[in-house]
Amino acid sequence: MGASCRIVTARVPLLHVTNGDSTASTLRRTRLGGDVLAWRDVLHAGPVPAGSRRSVLAARAGFLAAAGFGDAASLAASLEERDRQLVEALRAGEVVLWFEHDLYDQLQLVDVLALVGADGGAADLIVVGSFPGRPSFRGLGELSADELETLWPSRTPAAGETLGAAAAVWGALREPEPTALAGEARIERPGLPYLGAALRRLLAELPSPRDGLSATERHALEAIAGGATTRSAAFAAAQDLEEAPFLGDTWFLRELDVLATGARPLVAAPGGLRLTSDGERVLAGELDRVELLGVDRWVGGTHVTAGNVWRWDPVASRLLHP
Fold it and tell me: Which partner from 49, 95, 207, 231 sits 20 to 30 angstroms from 87, CA to CA?
């Protein structure tokens, strides 16, 4: 390995922070040393409310517990321990953040950077949207330990303006109305080059003015209309419709189940997945999904309900008030 890629043992404790267990496991197999912390949370799903850090973590733990990921108290304790580990590393060592370009990662990155800035600490960034020799690159979890090591020399310090931008986005995300979030989504930031697109993708989880569907729901219906007859096939086809795939199968199938329930479901399952007549008409823009099924969804701190239907026009990049 050339000098530019030389692996150096840190003189101070080193903490790698990354998006999940797959990348974390591979980082532990590199020659970089240090500890590895997986930032486990799906911030694109469920409430991310305003308030103190403790209240935010409590809300996240409650949501994850309701989704079947464990006991709320244990989850809250795990999230608090995760934060503590980061803060201790900021004060006593070196922190390197490994994230990619998709929505899942970009929200985690903003969360981490907001904490870094609030603590007055410093961190280095390795944030990628592509990798040599992988034209269909989807994320760090695809890379081997040797491939991750080649990214080490590209790390750059998170500048003060980057920390400030992350704090502004983190605050906007948690507001009870998405107005400030829509404003942040229009800003392109050299220090966070993938964030604008990720925020616009998050806003696309608001109902569309054309058909009331979120982008995830539309992709699900399009996948089924295109011939996917099983849940796994629908998931795979829907991910192929994403510019930057980010959604795990658990969260996709939860969305699919919602579309298959209610008095006028959009999806029927017996004998294989298919669109109902209402599903076909919604996908064609002739009916509105919210009017048929209602809506109960969180986008950051915004609780979208039948009485509070914020909509996002992805073509015009425009927010529509209730």
Answer: 49
| Tens digit of each residue's pLDDT (9 = 90 or more) over 179-191 | 999 999 999 999 9
Reference 144, options 286, 277, 8, 30; nearest CA is: 30
Residue 175 has pLDDT above 90, yes or no: yes
Q: State the alpha helices, DSSP H only, in the chain.
A: 21-28, 53-66, 72-92, 103-119, 145-151, 160-173, 179-185, 195-203, 215-225, 231-240, 249-259, 277-283, 289-293
Is domain 3-201 classified as CATH 3.30.160?
no
Q: Which long-range contacts (CB under 8 A, 24 or more apart) does 180-183 make?
A: 181/299, 181/300, 181/302, 182/312, 182/319
Strand partners, 319: 312
**Is 44:33 a contact under the CB 8 Å cutoff?**
no
What is the architecture, at CATH level 2, of domain 208-294? Orthogonal Bundle (1.10)
Residue 268 and residue 223 in contact, taking contact as beta carbons nearer than 8 Å: no
| Percent residues over pLDDT 70 in the chain | 96
Domain ranges of the chain: 3-201, 208-294
- Please, which residues have CB within 8 angstroms of residue 306's CB and are 6 or more apart in sequence? 290, 294, 295, 296
Residue carrying the six token digits 């404003």: 183
**Per-residue tokens: 270:** 């017996």
Backbone angles phi, psi at 258, to 5 degrees: -65, -40
Q: Do domains 3-201 and 208-294 have the same CATH topology?
A: no
Q: What is the pTM of this model?
A: 0.94
Main-chain dihedrals φ then ψ at residue 32, nearest 5 degrees: -80, -25
pLDDT tens-place string over residues 216-235: 999 999 999 999 999 999 99
